[in-house]
Each structure stands twice: as C-alpha cells, then as structure tokens.
Amino acid sequence: MAYSNSQENRDLLKAELESTVATILDDYKSDRVINRIELFDQPDRDAVNDILSNLIKIIFPGYFRERSYKFYNINSRIRVLIEDVLYNLNRQIPIALRQSDKYRDFDQAMLEDESRKLSGQFLLKIPQIREYVETDVAAFFDGDPAAFNHNEIILSYPGLRAIVTARIAHELYLLGIPIIPRMMTEHAHSRTGIDIHPGATIGKYFFIDHGTGIVVGETTIIGDNVKIYQGVTIGALSTRGGQSLRGKKRHPTIEDRVTIYAGASILGGDTVIGHDAVIGSNVFITSSVQAGARVSVKSQELSIKNTDGVTEETKEREADTNWFYII
User: Fold this and answer.
1) Domains along the chain?
2) What's the pTM value of the predicted model, to 2 decimals?
C-alpha cells in the first residue's frame, strides 16, 4: 500500500511538471522581446568577463596570477594572454555586430573580417590605455593618505578597477562595437558599486575615492586631474525624451583639476564645471560653474529629538570648512 501511495505521488508530480512546462513553453509563443530564444545570438557574458580579466592582467603584468598555465618568462605569458583575448574577441564581436544597423547586411564572413580588423585596432590601443592607467594609479596614491603603497591600490581599490574597466571599454566603444563595452562596465559596476558608462570621456590622473554610488553618464567629458568622491552623480538633467535623446550631449563637462565631494549631483549636457572649481558635499547643480569657484550648501537644518522625548530647537549651521569637505 505504501508503494502504491508513493507511485501515485510520483505520477501526480510528473503530471504537474508536464503541465507546468507546457504552460511556460506556450507563453514563449507570444510576441515579446524577452521571448527570443535563438541560441548564441548575443555575446556570452562569461566570455566577455574572461576577456576583461585577461586584459587587466596584460595591463598589470606582475600583479594578477594566471591559474590556467605556468609561465617561465613574461614574453610567453603575455603572448598567450593576447592570443586568448584575440581569439575570444573574434568570437564575440561578430555576434555583437549583428545587432548594429551598420552591419545588418553583412554575411558571416564579412562580420568575421570586420571583427579581425576591429580587434587588431583595439589591441594596439593597450599601450595608450596603460599610459592613462599609470597616471590614475599616481593620482590615487597622491590623493589618498590611507594608501599604503601602489600595490595596495592596484590589488584592492574598487575605484581603480572601475576606471581601468572604463578605459578598456571606452576604446571598444569608440570602435563602434555594440553591447560588449557596456557588459564590461556593468560587470565592474556589479563588483564596485561604481557606474561609469563606456561612452564617457575621461582624462588623465582620474581619482575616485571610496567610490560607492558614483554614476558617470554616457556623454560626460572629464578633464585631467579630476577627483570625485562617493555618491557623486554626473548625469542627465532629464531622460523623459527617451530614445529621441540618443547621441545628444546629455551629461556635464568637468574641466581640469575639479574636485567633487560626496553626494553632489551635477546634471545636464549644457552644464560645464570650470577648471579648478571645488564642488562641496550634497550640492545639486544644473547650470555651469565658473573656473575656480567654490560651491557649497549654504546651511543645514538639524532637528534633534533626545531620548527623553524633548525636541531641541532646530539649528542652522552655515557652511564652514568642516561641512564643506565632508567625505
């Protein structure tokens, strides 16, 4: 009798499973974007992450171990890493190119030829990327008294990881490769909490301190020797126009030697923060700021309710050096 009940339960579960599968498969028949089920019709996220990981190893040849192979000299190690990057780029780029109107009429052979050309052009940009990254490491060390040495910055700082990823992705973005650059920066975003669109143009000596919650929009232009702190948004003033805003300058321009402290929001494509300006914590800016200006919150109102239930009189604190530089 026990066997009969057990068999009956299994039959019921099997019938429920078949019914559930049939219901979900039937749901795929509707005309919705998320119902696309063509295999290998989009870049492979794991492969793109592997490309990014190997590129970071190439940029910092002595810092990140290679677990798959053992190498006895730098030449053989870098050669294998570059070959691996080239191989995977030439598998993923044709898939991404299919989704661009520019390559809509290309056949597979043409896509593969274009991919080889783009991959080669990108790899030749690595020395330039490394030149910029060297300045970023210097900016981190000069700007952060908590940094023990350059090794600590390279191995552990999320801000540097986000910047290096953005610099790699930006070069792919400039070559017109769809999707893959954004996959890279969003991978860094998920790891660091720092969201830098690959379209953003960033100068040398870029320093992000702490970093969590930073947003840098697609059409942002950032000059040299810029410092930004956690919670800063360099964003669009409005995105209600949706796709009609594609390709338009929606995000601010930050000129050289600007410092932007924690929680500041700077918005709008016409907004320019002039060189050597200092933007204080928690300010909200939607218009341009002159070179050398200091922008701060005029006052902060505090209402304090004590443990005895008595609420103290609201206090105002005028902007001072302590409040201005909260990080």
Assistant:
1) 40-194 (1.10.3130.10), 213-327 (2.160.10.10)
2) 0.84
Q: Where are the alpha helices (DSSP H) in 98-216?
A: 108-123, 126-143, 150-156, 158-174, 180-192
CA 164/CA 60 separation, integer angstroms = 10
Q: How many CB atoms lie within 10 A of CB 206?
A: 26
What is the model's pLDDT at position 38? 64
- For the chain, the helix, strand and coil percentages under 3-state DSSP, each to the nearest 5: 45, 15, 40
Of 207, 168, 174, the closest CA to residue 187 belongs to 168
Task: State the pLDDT at residue 319.
Answer: 47
Sheet holding 201-202, edge to edge: 201-202, 221-222, 253-254, 272-273
Burial class (CB in 10 A: 0-12, 13-18, 19+), 280: buried
Residue 256 contacts residue 203 (beta carbons within 8 Å): yes
Instruction: Tell me the three state secondary structure of residue 275.
Output: coil
Helical (H) or strand (E) element with 77: helix 74-97
Question: Residue 106 — φ and ψ, nearest 5°?
Answer: -80, 140
Classified as helix, coil or strand, 95 is helix
Distance, in Å, from the CA atom of 69 to the CA atom of 197, rounded to the nearest integer, reads 33
Residue 274 has pLDDT above 90, yes or no: yes
Q: Any idea which of 71-75, 138-142, 244-248 has the lowest mean pLDDT?
A: 71-75
> Binning pLDDT at 50, 70 and 90, where does residue 1 land?
very low
pLDDT in tens, 194-206: 999 999 999 999 9
Distance CA 194, CA 188 (A): 7
Sheet holding 233-235, edge to edge: 195-196, 215-216, 233-235, 265-267, 284-285
Number of H helices, E strands in the chain: 9, 16
